[in-house]
């Protein structure tokens, strides 16, 4: 065993420098993670689902758009609707209690849901030009104007009787 007098302070300088660098990196990682947690807990966390009426026990011609507040902070939802295959949006009209439950705008606390009901026959003339089988997404908009979007859903539109024609406007050519 070496006597203590044989260690010089110059031998410990590299250990000191190395230890300071490791602690600085550790502190940077911890503070970044803490900022991430603060950001995650303070932003609205809505999970949106789009489901056909037959899965929710309703009429098969109704799509149900559901928003679930997964966060700890209350969220106010102000609008809901669907996103068509080309990205255009159909927003359900506000102020009608029949189309959403609870009526919009609605404040959702942790774990609460809001449902929007989209009656397909009302929008068939808009949807049929995209084909009989289409892909739709549901969305909810919160009070901060952020949109929360559901996973895409494949949907087969109801068939119209043979004697019914859907008229579409011709596209403008420029």
Please give a structural write-up:
The strands form two sheets. Strands 3, 4, 6, 8, 9 and 10 form a six-stranded antiparallel β-sheet that branches. The protein has helices spanning 9-42, 120-127; strands spanning 46-52, 62-69, 75-83, 89-91, 100-101, 106-108, 113-119, 133-142, 147-149, 153-156. It contains two helices and ten strands; from the N terminus they run αβββββββαβββ. A hairpin with a 5-residue loop joins β3 (75-83) and β4 (89-91). The chain is α+β, with helices and mostly antiparallel strands and 174 residues long. The mean pLDDT is 83.
> What overall form do the CA principal axes indicate?
elongated
Strand percentage:
25-35%
Sheet having the most strands: 6 strands, antiparallel
Please state the structural category.
Answer: alpha+beta
Helix-strand layout with pairing:
Layout: H1 9-42, E1 46-52, E2 62-69, E3 75-83, E4 89-91, E5 100-101, E6 106-108, E7 113-119, H2 120-127, E8 133-142, E9 147-149, E10 153-156
Antiparallel strand pairs: 1-2, 2-7, 3-4, 3-6, 3-8, 5-7, 8-9, 8-10
Keywords:
single chain, 174 residues, alpha+beta, six-stranded antiparallel β-sheet, four-stranded antiparallel β-sheet, 2 helices, 10 strands, 24% helix, elongated
Give the gist of this structure.
This protein has 174 residues and is of the alpha+beta class.
